[in-house]
Amino acid sequence: MSPATTGAKQSGGRRRLVIEADGGSRGNPGVAGYGALVRDPETGRVLIEMAEPLGKQSNNVAEYSALLAGLRAVVDLDPSADVVARMDSKLVVEQMSGRWKIKHEDMRRLALEARDLCAEIGDAGGTVSFEWIPREKNKAADALSNDAMDGKSIHRVLHDEDADAAAAQSDSAASTTVSSGEGAAVAAHHKPLRLLLVQVPLVEAAVPRVVAAVLRLVGPHSEVVTSDEPLALEVARAVGAEVGSEPTVAGLWAGRAPGEDADETVRTAYRSLAARGGTVVAVTSRRGVLSVLTDVLETPGQRFWAIATAPGSLTAVEVWEDGSAAVAFTNRTEHLA
C-alpha cells in the first residue's frame, strides 16, 4: 500500500502532484524550521505532511530545506509524476529557474541537492516545475513551518492507496523542467555538477584538517575520485569513509602526463564528470587543479601557472544544466592555519 497512487492523471498517463513548501527563521539566522506537503491537485487532498526543526539557520536555508523535503517525498511516492513545486520564496524559485546566481555557499549546496532530485524525477519519466505563489496562498506549508520552529517534528501519511497502479505508469520520454510561474520553462539538459578539487597536502599531519574542511562542504554519498599518490589516497579514503562512498583511484587525476602546461588526461576526467553530474570530490595535484581551472576559464597556455593554489587547498567548480561552468572559489586554505 502506498500514498503514491493517490493523484490526478494527465492525458499522457502520468500522475500529477503538487508540493507546497515553506521555511522560516525567527531571527534570521535564528530558530528555524520547515514545512512541506504533497497534494493531489485534482481533489485537493493532502497526501503527506512534513515539518522539521533546523536549529539555528537562515530563512533561505529553511526555504531550501522545505523544497528538498517535498522533492524527496515525491521521489519516494512516485518519481514518474508531473510535479509542480509551489513556494512563496521568490529567491528559491528564481535560483532554481537558473535566472539568479547562487552566491551563498550553504544555499549553493542545497540547490545542487534539489537539482539532483529534479534530475532523478526526470530520469524516472516525470517532470518538475516551479511556481511562485503569494504567502497568503501558502498557508498550509506556513503553518507546518511554524510547528517546526516551535520544535515539532511531523511526518504524516494522510492517504494510502494501492501501489500497483503506480508500477503500471511510466513515460520515459519526459525530461526535467524548471520554471517560474512568471516565465518560460527551462529544459534541464543534464544533471548539474558540483566538483570540489582537493590539492594533495605536503605532509600527513595536514590530512585530518583537509578532510574536515571537505566534509563541511559535501554531503552523504558524494562521489570521491583520487590519484594514486599516497597522501591523495589517504585523504580520499578518509572522506569516502565519512560520506559512504568507496573512492575511485584513477591515474587520469595524477597530473603526470608529458608537458609543462595543462594535463589533457585530467581535463578528460573533468569533462566526463561534467557529463554525468552530481557532487564529486577529486583529490589531485596542483597541475590537476590548474588543468580543470584553466579549462573552465579558457586561460591562455602561457598563463597556466598564474593561478595560486597551495598544498591542501580547496577549489570548487560548478557546471549548470545548460553546460555552462563557473569557478565558485579557489585556493581555500583557512583550515590549514
From TrEMBL:
Coiled coil: none annotated. One of its GO terms (molecular function) is nucleic acid binding. InterPro entries: His_PPase_superfam, RNaseH-like_sf, RNaseH_domain, RNaseH_sf. SUPFAM superfamilies: Ribonuclease H-like. Residues 13-158 form the RNase H type-1 domain. PANTHER family: POLYNUCLEOTIDYL TRANSFERASE, RIBONUCLEASE H-LIKE SUPERFAMILY PROTEIN (PTHR46387), RIBONUCLEASE HI (PTHR46387:SF2). This is Putative phosphoglycerate mutase. It comes from Humibacillus xanthopallidus.
